[in-house]
Amino acid sequence: MHRPSADEFLLTLLESLEDLPPDLAQRFAELLKKDHVDRSAAIRQLFEDAGGE
Amino acid sequence: MNEKLQRLVMHAFRGIPNEMTFDFGTGESTVVYGDNGTGKSTIADALEWYFTGEIEMLSHEGRQHAVRYVGADSDGTTSVEVLTSGALGGKVVFPDERPPDMFHALRRETFLLRGRTLADFVNKTKTEKWKALVEILGLDAIESLREDLQRARNDLRKTTKTAEEEVRVYRRALSAGIDTVTEEAVVANLRQICGMLGVDPPHSLDQVVDPSWITTAVGASAGVSASSDRENLGADINALGAPAFDQKAFAAWNELVSSNRARQLPRASLVREAKRLVETQSIEAGRCPLCGQKVDQKVLARKIESALVEMMEAARDLERFRDPIIEEADGLESAHELRQAIHDRARELQLELPPVPAQPDARVRDQLEALAPVAIDTIASYLADLRRWDKAAAKLGRQISPATDSTRDSQLMMLAALCQQINAWQRAEKKHADARRALALAETVFDAYQLKQKEDLGHLLEEISGRVAKIYTALHPGEDLDAVSIEPWTAKGVELAINFFGSRQRPPHGVLSESHLNSLAIALFLAMAASFNEQLGFLILDDVINSFDVEHRGRLAELLADGFSDWQLIVLTHDQQFFEHLSRRAPSWRKIEFTSWSHASGPRTTKYEASGMLAAARERLQSDDVQGAATKGRRALEELLQEVCEALWAPLPFRRGQANDKREIGELFMGLRRALKEHAKSQLPTVEPIVKHLEADVGATLNVAAHASRGRSGAGEVKSALERIEALDALWSCPACRTRVWHKGTPDAARCRCGKSAFPPVVAG
Fold first, then answer.
1. B678, B650 Cβ separation under 8 angstroms
2. Most distant CA pair in chain A: distance in Å?
3. DSSP labels for B673-733?
4. Reduced to 3 DSSP states, what percent helix, strand and coil does chain B have, rounded to the nearest 5?
């Protein structure tokens, strides 16, 4: 049985959701690639940036 | 294709003083039989150590040294070498310095089930089962990302709330003369004021927030700005409102954390450990694992279980009460920050305000974290201080408010201040709108993530449950105990369930016997491996049938032989019936019998190793280790004589138990001569000269103690002795195919694979 990684799990989900900013999945993909970051703070910033546009 | 084991080599490891090798061919299944204490579990230990980096039983403090053979030389090496059908093989040397993250993926694989920890998973609490599943299913990383999404969402909730409060303050300040503060109402009000003052009214709010409009229309000067700041401050002070304080919510929290069940929460890990100790019988039976007093084992187990259930319920209630209090705490913090900002602005304008009362020392959040009661009186007292401060601030607010009999200039200044306030309000509205959009996005993603996680887990559990039920029913057909499944239990728990004569039982412990629970554990183990193993294609079952009766041992043997023929199974057992049943049911499996264990030479099996030891002796001779070569040569000769004596039914004095493995070499020579005299007298003259030479070798060349004293001078003699051992060995091998297959106890005991040779032994030209 295939066990998806966390990144794969989230990105698949984002692609299936409607009415999201078009590049949200792409932004998450870039964020999840980064090591040694405060991930929750980075995610919050991503939502703020996407929500403010 | 998942990897299978081909060879395992252990050196000075656990119960093996020197070296021991197991050959699994190209990955064949193997059943290993041996009495207790003969060393068969060393195979499981070695594979557990190699593939997980630890031996669970030795993972507790002070036991790690036992990975190494206790009597090993201080300069000797302890190692385990594994050859697999893929890339997972290799060699590990003690102390193991491989980094823990190396095992991250392999720890998700299921490959080892032991009798003593058989029911560990079945007996875990719902939360512990969830955690174990999360690791096996690889959901830990997904769960960690969910937690980060949740943290981001919670932060955005707080930001949005603060922004909302800011907007509320500005709206309250702008609400004088306006029923509802909307953009239209504010512009209409402004137009009315402009009309009264003879100033061109603005067309829209955008125009109002443009500083050039204010300058042009109002003709404000630098003095206006200073006055406006004071007036803005006055307006903000006037808009201050008391923070909300729901005393009932705090009282409910305090009552819960002060209750006996909540006080037990910090002891949860201790109670779980006690449960594990009781269940694994790692403690003296009949004694409490915590205090050592005598107790009834069943009563103790029930008490521990009941304590764990109570703790879980208390933990759930705590979460329910915690959220509203966190909101209250946010409100208190916002109120403090707002007043501090007003205080700072007043100081910049050289206006006097008393210091803002300090928040209570024991911050509400700290108390929540520590599961401690919140000091309600302290908060009430703090709020009273805040109200006194608000009164002092209100007094200042009145002082800096413009006089009622203002002149046109002061009215213009008020207009300018109003415009600035509108500007600030608009900024706050935008900030609030941005925060709300970000929060809405975060809520959408988080909710969908959590829902998908739940749905995916449901599918996973359904699939595992299907497999578990199938295996369990194969072990217990027609018993009206069916529909075994793993079911979700709240957000972070899973539990096993079963139909018991039509009634659903969750957990099933109350209605299942020990052997049924063990069957359930075996079914779970096999189902997990079949569902999720991605790298390992072998399974080890170490003494797992102790609680099974003959019928169920038979069913398990059939299930393993027929239902898991694609897997490489390594079954270790001390039960001879199970061993024989499995051997008959799965004739293609390899069979190994452990016969004894000794401190000096470690485990012995029914497999003789003469040729391997001869090869090792030759290697040592080549590297000038004459003493090592002599030692190996003597062991090779012992192995060979034991093998031949056993195969020919050599008449030897009866020995009790394992003493047969420890016969003197002289006895073996005697046994060989007698066997030849009885069954092959004509061959005796050919064999006798070699035997005589070897007897002399044993007394001199292969006498290790004597040899050590002579240093390296006997290399040639050792070489000759090894050649003679080879010659004796060759007597029982077919010259054509170089193999022999013993048929113990029959007159034609020696045979070979090509069938050309037979007993009496073939004598070389």
1. no
2. 40
3. HHHHHHH-GGGHHHHHHHHHHHHHHHHTTT-HHHHHHTTTTTHHHHHHHHHHHHHHHHTTS
4. 60, 10, 30
Pairing, β B19-23 against β B90-93: unpaired
Residues B89 and B17 in one domain: yes
In a domain, B257, yes or no: no
Dump pLDDT digits (tens) for A15-30: 898 888 888 999 999 9
Question: Of B582, B607, B632, at which residue does a domain stop?
Answer: B607
Are both B613 and B745 inside the same structural domain?
yes
Chain A, window 5-44: residues with a beta carbon less than 8 angstroms from a chain B beta carbon: 5-7, 9-10, 13-14, 17, 19-21, 24, 39-41, 43-44
Distance from B563 to chain A by nearest Cα, in Å? 19
Instruction: Give chain B's domain count.
Output: 2
Per DSSP (E only), the strands in B202-271 are: none
Buried-state track B633-652, b at ≥16 Cβ within 10 A, e below 16 = bbbbbbbbbbbbbbbbbbeb
Contact B210, B316 (CB under 8 A): no
**In-domain check, residue B68:** yes
* CA nearest to B451 within chain A: A13
The alpha carbon of residue B103 is apart from the nearest alpha carbon of chain A, in Å, by: 16
Site of tokens 């500005």: B170
- Domain range for B716: 609-751
Rounded to the nearest 10 degrees, the angle between the axes of helix A24-33 and helix A39-52 is 160
The sign one gets for the Cα dihedral B542, B544, B546, B551 is negative
- Stated pTM of the model: 0.59
Q: Domain ranges in chain A? A: 6-52
Torsion sign across C-alpha atoms B621, B626, B631, B637: positive
Which pLDDT score is estimated for B282? 60
Q: What is the Cα–Cα distance from B450 to B506, expressed in whole angstroms?
A: 25
pLDDT at position B222: 36
Mention every residue, 6+ apart, whose C-beta is less than 8 A from residue B531. Answer: A1, B463, B464, B467
Identify whether the C-beta of residue B589 lies closer than 8 Å to the C-beta of residue B616: no
User: Residue B75: which CATH number?
Assistant: 3.40.50.300
Closest residue in B to A18 (Cα) is B444
Q: Element (H or E) spanning B505, and its range? A: strand B503-505
Pair B240, B390: CB distance under 8 Å: yes
What SS3 state is found at B601? coil
Nearest CA in chain B to A16: B448
Token pair recorded at residue B669: 């020579």
Contact B151 A40 (CB under 8 A): yes
Same domain, yes or no: B547 and B660: no
List average pLDDT for each run of 10 residues in chain B, which is 765 residues long: 91 89 92 91 94 84 78 82 95 90 81 83 78 73 89 94 89 74 83 78 80 68 53 81 82 83 69 70 66 75 76 73 80 86 88 87 74 85 90 84 59 78 88 94 94 85 87 85 75 75 79 84 88 91 89 91 93 92 90 84 80 87 87 89 83 73 84 84 84 90 64 76 90 72 55 60 46
Three-state DSSP state, B499 = strand
The answer to whether B601 touches B12, Cβ cutoff 8 Å, is: no
Quote ipTM for the complex.
Answer: 0.96
DSSP B435-464: HHHHHHHHHHHHHHHHHHHHHHHHHHHHHH
Query: Which one-letter amino acid corresponds to residue B276?
Result: R
For B397, the 3-state DSSP assignment is helix
Q: Which helix (H) or strand (E) holds B605?
A: strand B602-605
What type of residue is B647?
Answer: A
Shortest Cα–Cα distance, B465 to chain A (Å):
14
* Domain boundary residue, one of B563, B580, B607: B607
